[in-house]
């Protein structure tokens, strides 16, 4: 079924919004452990806890942050979005 007129433009707008929201949700879910560790660091009671959480964040950062960005780029490439290179 071919869409025409306003229905087609409305479909295109919602399709773009869905792609945008999906990639952002993926990014947030992948980066949640780092955000939780940073929040835990703010409320840490001892200096040793702060050091331990800082080491944990530094260890998790390359695996969590970069993989979530890579996931978003691969997803957009797979869906045919050529704007990201």
* Beta-strand content bin: under 5%
What Rg do the Cα atoms give?
19 Å
Counted by DSSP, the helix tally is 2
The major pleated sheet works out as:
none
User: Helix and strand succession?
Assistant: HH
Tell how many strands the DSSP assignment holds: 0
Structural classification:
mainly alpha
Helix content: over 70%
Tell the overall outline. elongated
Distance between the termini: 32 Å
The protein's oligomeric status is: single chain
Report what the structure shows.
There is one protein chain. This protein has 85 residues and is mostly helical. It has 2 helices and no strands. The chain is 81% helix and 0% strand. α1 (6-42) runs antiparallel to α2 (47-78).
What's the topology here?
Layout (H helix, E strand, L loop, with lengths): L5 H37 L4 H32 L7
Question: Summary?
Answer:
The chain has 85 residues and is mainly α.
Essential attributes:
85 residues, mainly alpha, 2 helices, 81% helix, elongated
């Amino acid at each position: 079924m071919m869409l025409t007129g306003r229905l087609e433009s409305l479909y295109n707008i919602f399709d773009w919004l869905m792609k945008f929201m999906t990639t952002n949700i993926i990014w947030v879910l992948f980066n949640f452990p780092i955000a939780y560790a940073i929040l835990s660091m703010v409320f840490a009671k001892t200096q040793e806890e702060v050091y331990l959480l800082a080491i944990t964040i530094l260890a998790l950062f390359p695996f969590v942050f970069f993989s979530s960005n890579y996931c978003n780029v691969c997803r957009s490439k797979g869906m045919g979005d050529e704007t990201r290179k």
